[in-house]
């Protein structure tokens, strides 16, 4: 079974140690780091992981984009049967909710690997799962502009990316309170399409 180890951003050394442990166990597995951290590769090289086994994708800025922005690369370049997802234990519930949405019916087994034994936190599970499922079925990615701007200094949003702040400002604040939730969610897209005609 062809495996790929996906190192989700943040917590560089703790997660990298777990990825390196997996790389020693699965000699043919490659490592994909999904992180905006420009120094992520150096640690792997210092630990003896060769350049041909580790790749760094810097297009993601949060856990949802760790998956949405690497999906095509993973399917096209690596073609794994199994994706070993390495993250801290505290976020694994959210990580797997996102991974299951993005990889739903894609033919790749998702295996969670906790880099530590920290207590799980339920914060943002529903919000990020919603964002991932919405992206999965519509191709539209809702994101927090404030988070992206803090983590990525230069970035040109893709056409399918809509800031949550925009959603809030132009839907929830401007539409009547009795407007159905789905209309509020789709309103920015409707207005964007309308304005492009």
Please provide a brief summary of the model.
The protein is of the alpha/beta class.
What report would you give on this structure?
The chain is an alpha/beta fold and 197 residues long. It is 47% helix and 17% strand. The longest helix has 16 residues, at 181-196. The chain is elongated, with a radius of gyration of 18 Å. The mean pLDDT is 87.
Number of strands: 7
* Unreliable sequence segments: none
Beta percentage is 15-25%
Q: What integer is the average pLDDT?
A: 87
Based on secondary structure, the structural category is alpha/beta
> SSE order in H/E notation?
EHEHEHHEHEHEHEHH
Radius of gyration: 18 Å
Outline type? elongated
Q: Which strands sit side by side, in order, in the main sheet?
A: 3-2-1-4-5
Through-space gap between termini: 48 Å
Features:
197 residues; alpha/beta; two-stranded parallel ribbon; 7 strands; 47% helix
Task: Give a topology summary.
Layout: E1 3-8, H1 12-25, E2 30-34, H2 40-46, E3 54-57, H3 63-68, H4 71-78, E4 82-87, H5 92-102, E5 109-114, H6 125-138, E6 141-143, H7 145-151, E7 161-163, H8 164-172, H9 181-196
Parallel strand pairs: 1-2, 1-4, 2-3, 4-5, 6-7
